[in-house]
Write a structure and sequence with these properties.
Shape: globular
CATH class: Mainly Beta
Number of domains: 1
Strand content: over 45%
CATH architecture: Beta Barrel
Mean pLDDT: 82
Structural class: mainly beta
Low-confidence stretches: none
């Protein structure tokens, strides 16, 4: 997408324990001059778009930020990693730490994602 300078992911998980399906999408654009990935994220349960800045080192995209409290989640520090990246695949994990800590991280979620070719958006 955009000559290799942008990637869009569509997140379509199975229903959670409450039967909800919280679909989301993000757009990551790469600034070759600074080496920074700019990330915009939104989810179906929210009308807001969150933005983050990320870095790339040792084959891993790192996104770190403070997140405000939302729903059942308290305010926290987050770290997202995209790794095992290829043209057809990447792995992803989300870790959190209390705002006052930043040293003790807990893995909250892990995904393994593959490119789906020829599939219409929303199908």
């Amino acid at each position: 997408m955009l000559d290799g300078r942008a990637v869009q992911d569509v997140w379509k998980p199975l229903a959670n324990a409450d039967g909800q399906v919280l679909q989301g999408t993000n757009l990551r654009t790469y600034d070759a001059e600074t080496g920074i990935w700019n990330v915009a994220w939104t989810i179906s349960s929210s009308a807001r778009i969150e933005t983050f800045i990320s870095s790339y080192r040792d084959g891993v995209i790192h996104i770190s930020a403070q997140r405000a409290a939302t729903g059942v989640f308290p305010a926290h520090m987050m770290h997202i990693s995209f790794y095992n990246i290829s043209g057809q695949h990447f792995d992803w994990k989300y870790e959190t730490s209390p705002l006052t800590d930043g040293k003790n991280w807990s893995e909250i979620s892990r995904l393994s994602c593959d490119r789906v070719s020829g599939q219409a958006v929303g199908s």
